[in-house]
Amino acid sequence: MQERKLGRTGVKVSEIGFGAWAIGGAWGDVSMEDAKAALHAALDGGCTFIDTADVYGDGRSEQIIAEVLAERGGEKPFVATKAGRRLAPHVAEGYTKANLSDFVERSLRNLRVDCLDLVQLHCPPPAVFYRPEVFQAMDELVAEGKVRHYGVSVEKVEEALKAIEYPNVATVQIIYNIFRQRPATLFFEQAKKRDIGVIVRVPLASGLLTGKMGADTAFAADDHRAFNRNGEAFDKGETFAGVPYPLALEAVEHIRKLVPGDASMAQFALRWILMEEGVSTVIPGARNATQARSNTEAAALAPLAPEVMSELRALYREMIAPHVHHLW
Q1: Are strands 12-14 and 3-5 parallel, antiparallel or unpaired?
Q2: How far is the C-alpha of 89 from the C-alpha of 111, rounded, in Å?
Q3: Taking the CB of residue 83, how many other CB atoms lie within 10 A of it?
Q4: What is the rounded average pLDDT of the residues 297-315?
Q5: Is the pTM of this model over 0.85?
């Protein structure tokens, strides 16, 4: 497992981290035993970066992380959480100092720490990026010793570009995968210029890029892949990267031909992301120890050949981009 610098935080983190949404909720039933085993396996595999949020399982994800880290002892990984989605309604006006302070205090309790390593505004409404007072509130939470660093999680490239204009935004979390390649056209360049840490989420397009799904794959009622395909609960780009499911399955069959014999498609898809030097860490989720172990092992794959990268760019341009590129 190699490490990369997380932007201006100066912290070195594993290039493959652990996304803790699945162990919190909205991915079907994940038992406490499986959730803890998944996180243990990721940490055993060299993961030093964990990403969670206060709304994942209404705090369950944060609490599981705290419990596992207490069991392990020793040096702690870098833990990033998110705030803002507890607002109801989720509107820009709710991003006040008082509300953000309340969210931070709750995460401090859930994670059993005195200071949060990183707090990310959790895909806020676009208007938030034009409210300097929100970022001033985050500066104050840093000054108060409650938060070490802060950043944003975004849906759109335009939101990311606006966010990094604020001088103390240290990180941006964004969707980037074989089916969502737009961040590479401008955002990564600008992030590098400003020394912004880039955290890549939805790296496997909600499991599509594992190559294990088909037209008859069924999802539990409480799995966002069943209830959010058209954005019924949150941005549809978070589910299957916003790609129409039948088209995505067709594209997966093209990708399958490019995967080397010593790798799974999921590992191949993660390695593709790591080919971008502007990425600090990628955070695949895992529902069990086997998945987590496989994810960390992707770090050992050889770099992808130039002709493979070229084919994947062409596939995106010809099949996928017309459906997603202009939206996010």
Answers
A1: antiparallel
A2: 25
A3: 29
A4: 96
A5: yes
